[in-house]
């Protein structure tokens, strides 16, 4: 299988190598044709020593270097593709050696196989119309709800870069909405129907305690001109929101993954088997631009990483090892990681003597929860 990056670019190494081989064949054929043409030109010049023959020989003497440059160009292209494939394979071999030889060393984005369209039935987060979000950055918060939490109009105008008199929009982007987006996935899995991201966000703000309300106000005041909200949600923020959606949520203590990975695997497997939805706090590499690995799980020791909520959607045992399928709010898709790579990515806040995940089940007496 070829390598694939978050933007959908897929690389098939053997196909690239075949292109390189075709370029080399083309270069050889091009050179052979050029040599034949040069030979014919020289022969014509010898046979017809008159002006036409000499003119053709002179003409070809000027053209031949251009043909040679074409041969060299095709050869360089082939070499560049071959070097790229060799370096990519060496990079993967080096990454594998790092994982085996230095399990506690800082690592970059860990290998994964994306299931960008969630073909195996894993729920994606959707908006109120049922459309899957492209990423968590599409999430928005009601301006009215923010004002009800005591956020001033002046601070919202400063956040959005609006002048006095300009109307406030109905909603404001929330760039750090991984918690409610992940909760939307979890709630959809437990309730058996799509729970829109808007519902999860509205529940989060309606049930916000004094600490979260203060965090929201301070975050807005600290982001003049940023144009989006950047506050984060914690364990109890999500549990309170889940209760309003019709879920019973709790921090579930599980075996320490470093000391008893087998016990942790069985514990997660049992909970998923009972129909619970799980969320885990992990570390992701949040670099933008050309870097492959945006929003992907990374080592909990990596310095260029941030905390991030994901939904644990499935555990798989395959001939080549164990895998965890997560619902990653960052690009709102399912991603498959090796078990050991998932363990390495669990956030330090969850790596206590015993580890924890958030577990959600259908709450008693609820008929589906309150939706806005």
TrEMBL record:
Q: Which UniProt keywords apply?
A: Coiled coil
The chain's coiled-coil residues are 71-101
- What's the domain of life for this entry? Bacteria
Q: Which InterPro entries match?
A: ESAT-6-like_sf
Q: What is this protein called?
A: Peptidase_C39 like family protein
């Amino acid at each position: 299988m070829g390598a694939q990056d978050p933007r959908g670019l897929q690389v098939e190494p053997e196909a690239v190598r075949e292109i390189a081989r075709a370029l080399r064949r083309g270069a050889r054929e091009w050179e052979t044709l050029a040599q034949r043409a040069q030979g014919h030109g020289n022969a014509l010049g010898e046979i017809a020593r008159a002006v036409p023959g000499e003119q053709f020989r002179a003409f070809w003497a000027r053209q031949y270097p251009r043909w040679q440059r074409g041969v060299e160009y095709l050869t360089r292209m082939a070499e560049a593709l071959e070097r790229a494939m060799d370096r990519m394979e060496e990079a993967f071999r080096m990454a594998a050696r790092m994982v085996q030889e230095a399990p506690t060393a800082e690592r970059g984005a860990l290998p994964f196989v994306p299931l960008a369209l969630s073909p195996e039935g894993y729920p994606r987060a959707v908006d109120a119309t049922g459309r899957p979000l492209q990423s968590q950055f599409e999430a928005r918060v009601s301006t009215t709800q923010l004002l009800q939490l005591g956020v001033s109009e002046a601070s919202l105008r400063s956040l959005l870069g609006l002048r006095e008199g300009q109307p406030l929009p109905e909603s404001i982007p929330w760039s750090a909405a991984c918690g409610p987006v992940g909760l939307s996935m979890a709630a959809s899995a437990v309730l058996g129907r799509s729970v829109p991201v808007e519902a999860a966000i509205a529940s989060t703000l309606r049930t916000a305690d004094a600490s979260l309300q203060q965090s929201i106000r301070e975050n807005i005041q600290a982001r003049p001109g940023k144009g989006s909200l950047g506050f984060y949600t914690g364990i109890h923020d999500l549990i309170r929101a889940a209760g309003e959606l019709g879920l019973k949520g709790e921090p579930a203590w599980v075996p320490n993954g470093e000391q008893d990975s087998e016990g942790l695997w069985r514990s997660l497997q049992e909970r998923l088997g009972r129909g619970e939805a799980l969320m885990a706090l992990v570390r992701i590499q949040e670099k933008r631009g050309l870097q492959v690995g945006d929003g992907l799980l990374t080592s909990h020791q990596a310095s260029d990483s941030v905390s991030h909520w994901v939904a644990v959607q499935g555990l798989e045992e395959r001939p080549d090892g164990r895998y965890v399928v997560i619902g990653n709010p960052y690009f709102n898709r399912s991603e498959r990681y090796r078990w050991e790579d998932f363990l390495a990515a669990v956030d330090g806040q969850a790596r206590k003597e015993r580890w924890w995940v958030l577990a959600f089940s259908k709450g008693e007496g609820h008929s589906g929860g309150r939706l806005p």
